[in-house]
Amino acid sequence: MDILLIAGLWLDGSAWNDVTPALEAHGHRPVPLTLPGQGDGSASAILDDQVRAVIAAVDQAVGEVTVVGHSAACTLAWLAADARPDKVAKVVLIGGFPSGDGQPYADFFEYLDGVMPFPGWDRFEGPDSADLDEPARDAFAAAAIPVPEAVTRGVVHLSDERRFDVPVLVVCPEFTPDQAREWIGAGDVPELAKAKHVDFVDIDSGHWPMVTKPTELARILAEAASIIAS
Predict the structure, then answer these.
(1) Sorting pLDDT into bands at 50, 70 and 90, what band is 173?
(2) Is the pLDDT confidence value at 13 over 60?
(3) Read out DSSP for 86-122?
(4) Cβ neighbours of 135 (radius 10 Å)
(5) By residue range, what is the domain housing residue 165?
(6) What pLDDT sits at residue 227?
(7) What is the CATH number of the domain that holds 148?
């Protein structure tokens, strides 16, 4: 099965470089995406450009597709399910949750000259980054791509309630499955509260398991896709 891989803020498709070989070994076709404004040189990109790029990748996939979103890009994965509920077989959310209709996409950090640069590791101290050593942190920060403000402040638009029929797997890195269930049950994640099929899996990592636990993450993603494919 084709597995679309969408990394979060400041990352391009190369974030999945250590994951894709393991997915191929499991018999799947990984498709890491580099989004407009996050690696393709489109400093003027808006959220709709990223959404269109994701939907185009779904349309180009062979047969049904699993769409994986990491962190803020969990919303992009969910938007793919909204746009193509008959084509997206499963949504996998890593370390994040989808924003709801009418909410800003990822208005989380400070802006500079029309972009949201990586804010530094002080903002991620604790479980988010505890498994990243200094060389890994330095490499991440050096490669981080400032995200256009028009992307992060773009408004999410959801329209097709068939998205709630698409199975969801929540991969829990810096938080636990029990915490995720609690947040959803408390109404903090309205989109997943309405989803009909939500499963959870733990991974012992910080916020970026594609960097620190790529083989284990690939196994989780492959198993998720194989359940659908079978």
Answers:
(1) very high
(2) yes
(3) TTEEEEEEES--PPPTTSBS---S--BTTEE----GG
(4) 8
(5) 2-229
(6) 73
(7) 3.40.50.1820
